[in-house]
Design goal:
single chain; two-stranded parallel sheet; 74% helix; 1% strand
Length: 349
């Protein structure tokens, strides 16, 4: 019901606003619970009060961020589905339309695989919620100190679990499903593109510098950007509790490995096919250039023009990226993760 309410036929801005307002209700619930327990600030080193728990603050602040990134992902995925660079039989309107409808059904949560992903992510979220409920029933065992959402503080305990239930069992499963669906879209398109490698075109003058495939890389970068708020959540929890307990270790490991896999694994086959096509094209152009030098009168008065055009095409082809990324993309990703790396260095020191 809530998902239908948030993703109705209203304008995009209205839906984003609804979801963000719903998300911001839960920090208010947590604050009320802490106020009733008088644990907004726990003085004299008694523990971490509501305003002293940076993990919860970053958790609340990350929610609007992941919502906006998810909508950005859906926009990018829609553009990729609308304009795939297919050749061969995939250009047949009937086959192409059927393929596009399947991808749209996956992104819109109507496909069976999306529903299974959403249910599995919700189940994992419920498991982590139960673990959190157990560890905070007596937080000194795991965290070594009292916290505002400990079992001894009833209102804060249940208010925190309501907030975490929304984020871990509802919001984050949607985020995970959108990310997985976007990765599936990329993988499905790459498989279709590379299926008939012999007919693959490599336009040297494609404005994106990636042979027309940069839109796939941009979609994947959106998935990578979605990981950044979760890094900050883990770092904030590490800072709050001054310990790196096993759930944080697990989350950090999954995120680090996930970023590397996301950026490169789906594109390995495309990179291989494009590298072969690029090499073949360069050999052909090299042969043409050598032929023009050996037979300068083959084109008559236009020989110099033909040589210049062929040489320019060779240079453009040699600069093409066989990955769906350009140098600027690498710089943006590095700058996006710079605050995360800086925070890790500070915590380690």
């Amino acid at each position: 019901m809530i998902f239908a309410f948030l993703t109705g036929r209203d304008g995009r801005g209205v839906r984003v606003l609804r979801l963000i307002i719903l998300t911001l209700i839960f920090p208010m619930v947590a604050a009320i619970g802490a106020q009733l327990d008088r644990t907004v600030i726990m003085e004299d080193g008694r523990g971490h009060g509501f305003l002293q728990h940076f993990g919860f603050f970053v958790l609340f602040a990350s929610s609007p961020a992941v919502i906006l990134i998810c909508f950005m992902l859906l926009d990018r995925a829609a553009r990729v589905i609308t304009n795939p660079r297919f050749t061969g039989e995939m250009r047949n309107p009937l086959i192409l339309n059927s393929f596009q409808r399947r991808l749209v059904s996956i992104l819109s949560f109507r496909h069976k695989s999306s529903k299974i992903t959403l249910a599995a992510a919700s189940f994992v979220g419920a498991a982590f919620l139960l673990i959190n409920a157990h560890t905070t029933s007596d937080p000194r065992i795991v965290y070594g100190t009292d916290v505002w959402d400990a079992g001894a503080h009833g209102f804060g305990y249940y208010a925190a679990k309501i907030c975490l239930a929304y984020q871990w069992m509802y919001l984050y499963p949607i985020v995970v499903t959108v990310a997985c669906s976007s990765i599936y879209v990329i993988g499905a398109i790459v498989i279709r593109i590379t299926k008939d490698a012999s007919s693959l075109q490599l336009p040297a003058y494609a404005p994106d510098g990636c042979g027309g495939f940069r839109s796939l890389g941009q979609l994947m970068l959106g998935v990578v950007y979605l990981d950044i708020p979760f890094f900050f959540v883990l770092l904030a929890l590490r800072y709050t509790h001054s310990s790196f307990y096993w759930t944080l270790e697990l989350g950090t490991g999954v995120l680090v490995i996930g970023v590397v896999i996301e950026m490169f694994l789906p594109f390995i086959k495309l990179h291989t096919v494009l590298s072969l096509a690029k090499r073949k094209k360069l050999i052909e152009l090299q042969s043409m250039i050598e032929g023009l030098w050996e037979q300068p009168h083959a084109y008559g008065q236009n020989t110099e023009l033909a040589l210049l055009a062929t040489n320019t095409l060779y240079e453009r082809t040699s600069r093409l990226s066989t990955w769906p990324y350009v140098a600027g993309d690498t710089i943006r990703v590095a700058l996006s993760f710079l605050p995360v790396v800086t925070a890790i260095i500070r915590l380690a020191s």
